[in-house]
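Q: I'm building a small set of examples for a reading group on sequence design. Run inverse folding on the following structure and report the sequence directly after it, with nothing in between.
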């Protein structure tokens, strides 16, 4: 449920993120910022009539690039392929996506097939959101995590009976074991 109109939300969130990233950069060596888009800010709300990439959430990384251009410790990374975020952590290939176009039980295999064909790389872990609850699933050695929502349960989630505490997810990786642990940080 929106307390602000879409433009105000985008401006507000973009500035909060810029301030947070800038403050964090004081205490760390470097920051890579990745972002994806989903189904929350598409320009045409009827999903059958909309183009998935025609999404106002794509303005946020553009703004962050402008806002943090003078901070040489921050890298805003553009997606190489649509709404997918791809990166490597400790030698393990990770793909993140909002998840609105995916069935969670199939996401690891689907993304692995896509990235194997498109980029010649296999995927070890996927992370997605969209479904408004926590869940983890492993299939064919690909571990998929459905992460919690920053806002928890809103009117949409309540109407679908999707209940979750507001949270963020932190995962710790090591070169030897991959993902060692997951912390679901309740907010």
């Amino acid at each position: 449920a929106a307390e602000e109109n879409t433009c105000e939300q985008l401006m507000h969130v973009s500035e909060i993120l810029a301030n947070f990233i800038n403050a964090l950069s004081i205490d760390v060596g470097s920051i890579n910022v990745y972002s994806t888009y989903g189904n929350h800010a598409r320009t045409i709300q009827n999903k059958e009539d909309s183009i998935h990439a025609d999404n106002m959430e794509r303005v946020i990384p553009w703004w962050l690039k402008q806002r943090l251009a003078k901070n040489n410790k921050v890298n805003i990374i553009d997606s190489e392929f649509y709404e997918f975020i791809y990166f490597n952590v400790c030698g393990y290939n990770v793909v993140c996506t909002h998840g609105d176009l995916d069935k969670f039980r199939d996401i690891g295999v689907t993304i692995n097939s896509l990235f194997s064909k498109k980029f010649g790389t296999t995927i070890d872990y996927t992370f997605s959101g969209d479904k408004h609850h926590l869940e983890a699933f492993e299939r064919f050695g690909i571990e998929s995590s459905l992460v919690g929502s920053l806002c928890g349960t809103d009117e949409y989630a309540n109407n679908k009976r999707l209940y979750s505490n507001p949270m963020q997810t932190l995962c710790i990786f090591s070169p030897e074991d991959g993902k060692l642990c997951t912390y679901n940080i309740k907010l």
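The longest strand covers residues 178-186.
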